[in-house]
Amino acid sequence: MKRTLSLLLLLTACAPAVQPPATAPVPAAAEDTCGAAPYASLVGQDGTALEKVLILKPVRIIRPGMAVTMDFSPARMNFDIGPDGRIARIFCG
């Protein structure tokens, strides 16, 4: 019994290490698939600044506490409005 246990421990020590899974590729949301780059200057401005900008693409304005669906649309531009009423970030998805 002792010999079997020793042999089992020895074989376990020789087994190859399990490699962690490869990191996931960068999601498409990190890419500018919706053409948000030209609007980067709006970040930090009051949310009402969006009223003066013509955007002929799908747009979603997300306000604090607002329910948002989890659907992903790479062509949609999202404007995240912070609790202070200013545009906190712009992202695709």
Describe the structure in your own words.
With 93 residues, the protein is an alpha+beta fold. The protein has a domain at 34-93: Trypsin Inhibitor V, subunit A (Trypsin Inhibitor V, Chain A). It has 1 helix and 3 strands; from the N terminus they run αβββ. It has one helix at 2-14; strands at 59-62, 77-81, 87-92. It has a 3-stranded mixed β-sheet, with no helix packed on it.
Please tag this protein with its features:
three-stranded mixed beta sheet; 16% strand; 93 residues; 3 strands; Trypsin Inhibitor V, Chain A; alpha+beta; globular
The succession of helices and strands, N to C, reads HEEE
Q: What is the CA-CA span between the terminal residues?
A: 60 Å
**What's the count of strands?**
3
Main sheet: strand order? 1-2-3
Mind summarizing the main beta sheet? Answer: 3 strands, mixed
What fraction strand?
15-25%
CATH topology of the domain at 34-93: Trypsin Inhibitor V, Chain A
The CATH homologous superfamily of the domain at 34-93 is termed Trypsin Inhibitor V, subunit A
Q: What is the annotated CATH architecture of the domain at 34-93?
A: 2-Layer Sandwich
Q: Which parts are unreliable, with pLDDT below 50 for 5 consecutive residues or more?
A: 20-29
Write down the CATH class of the domain at 34-93: Alpha Beta
Please provide a brief summary of the model:
This protein is an alpha+beta fold and 93 residues long.
Outline the fold blueprint.
Layout: H1 2-14, E1 59-62, E2 77-81, E3 87-92
Parallel strand pairs: 1-2
Antiparallel strand pairs: 2-3
